Amino acid sequence: MDGQQAETRNDEGRDVVLSARGVTVGFGSKVVLDNLNLDIYRGEILGFVGASGTGKSVLMRTVLRLLPRRSGNIKILGQDFDELDEPQRNALDMRLGVLFQQGALFSSLTVKENIQVPMREYLDLPQSLMDELAQLKIRLVGLAADAADKYPSELSGGMIKRAALARALALDPELVFLDEPTSGLDPIGAAEFDELIARLRDTLGLTVYMVTHDLDSLFSVCDRIAVLGKKRVMVEGTIDDMLAFDDPWVQAYFKGKRARSIVPQSGHAGKDSLAQDSRGK
């Protein structure tokens, strides 16, 4: 165990829970990601941004082994899937949770049954225990108990997001992937969902990889930001790092009209200022 922990620490002594090195992904003659590097540290919320079509979701799906890569190495929680046998891969999968952009709930299953899908896939539990665990996850994400027996068609957009998050948390993961978690939500619903993510990170000790376009999320809950462009991670760091980075798209994104006129202070003060400005109007 000590050897594994040593392999997952960077030069500053921080635990690296996800490490991508030299990752290249393409489709036919088109290269989407080229020699990409990225680290995610334990306990942080990383906001991953980039222009539409740059490959944000492609990278997330590649990390999750839903898409093949042409080259490069990816380690999650100190382990390389390519070096693991099937039982070891299943054990690592259980330490990950995923919320896809539209929730991706099974329409023919109730909320409770959707949450139980990962339990049925990876565990052998009695139905009564799965029912109790599903109710626990439902309460954890702020849904009413009676949501358990509702179908996705009976849920609002915000409820669908929370139900999908409950399913992502079904196996008590350490690393959670969120793909555009606030898309389609009104400003109040998006702010509440951001607060939920931050609270769950703090109470459960999660590490969160969040693909997002939501500037409010970036300023209010993300500890670091990584910007994808030119087929690689162009810059990663704090809001101040983004504002200081000399790239036209990055400058337009973080200083443009959608960013309001707030110039954040260093640390959380800047996050709070923008969140108050953009959500209070």
UniProtKB/TrEMBL annotation:
Record Pfam families: ABC_tran
PANTHER family xref list: PROTEIN TRIGALACTOSYLDIACYLGLYCEROL 3, CHLOROPLASTIC
Stated name of the protein: Phosphate import ATP-binding protein pstB
Keywords, comma-separated and alphabetical: ATP-binding, Hydrolase, Nucleotide-binding, Transport
The organism's place on the tree of life at top rank: Bacteria
Keyword Zinc: no
ABC transporter domain span: 18-255
Transport found in the keyword field: yes
Uppermost EC category: hydrolase
